[in-house]
Amino acid sequence: MVIETQKVGILSYQIKVDQPDGEILETVTTDNPRTMLFGTGRVLAGFEKRLLGLKSGDTFDFVIEPDEAFGDFREELLMEVPKSAFVINGELKAETLKIGRTVPMMDGEGNPFEGRIIEFVDDAVRMDFNHPLAGKTLRTSGVVINVREATDEELNPAPSGCGCGTQDSSCCGGGGHEHSHDEHGCGCGTSDESCCSSSPELQEQSTGGCGCH
User: Fold this and answer.
1) What is the DSSP string of the chain?
2) What pLDDT is stored for residue 133 in this prediction?
3) pLDDT of residue 190
4) pTM beyond cutoff 0.90
5) Cβ atoms 212, 169 nearer than 8 A
């Protein structure tokens, strides 16, 4: 059986930034392999395309350019957000405002996305809304351990409320992985005020990441 639409591949692999001494982004071992359902939009497109047709025992080693991974780095996604956007129930959540902190947010349409705090400017917070891997060329190598039919549960999963694009999820997506967020006081579906933006650029950016669409 080969990897194709609505088949499940069991894989071990390593993903790293494709440059000398590039950072290792993810390692999945044969002792704890990744289970991926193909052809349903849950696996990063550039990753999935290169695995289709492989069978159990096949090895792979390929490069994914930014346009097939997480896109180019976009200067227009470096934005200033008023500190008032981080006020919840009349209180500024100071613990949220830390350089390097990734904050789950929502745009004006209720779509989730994330931004990383990079600087404080007067009464504003300068944030980077690019995906953490934007502009990166990725090299992936590994082995197909097994290929099998998908179960009904895998083909029709219960809604998970996945926020998409978290830094804690698999680089390539797949299935069965959990998304985790730090305890931010800002947005991501809270009943309090959330950090919202009606920016078209952010609405476009919030359509997914890390294989979760």
Assistant:
1) -B--TTEEEEEEEEEEESSTTPPEEEEE-TTSPEEEE-SSS-B-HHHHHHHTT-BTT-EEEEEE-GGGTT----GGGEEEEEGGGGEETTEE-GGG--TT-EEEEEETTS-EEEEEEEEEETTEEEEE-S-TTTT--EEEEEEEEEEEEPPHHHHSPPP----SS-TTS-SSB-SSPPP-----SS-SS-SS---EE--HHHHHHTT-BTTB-
2) 92
3) 33
4) no
5) yes
List the beta bridge partners of residue 43: 173
**Tell me, what's the pLDDT at 125?**
92
Q: What is the pLDDT of residues 182-197, one digit of tens each?
A: 333 333 333 333 344 4
Q: Which tokens in the block code for residue 126?
A: 């300068």
State the pLDDT at residue 188: 32
CATH pick for 7-70+135-155 out of 3.40.50.1860, 3.40.50.1100, 1.25.40.10, 3.10.50.40: 3.10.50.40
Its CATH class, for the domain covering 75-132+180-205, is mainly beta
Closest among 94, 43, 61, 56 to 213, alpha carbons compared: 43
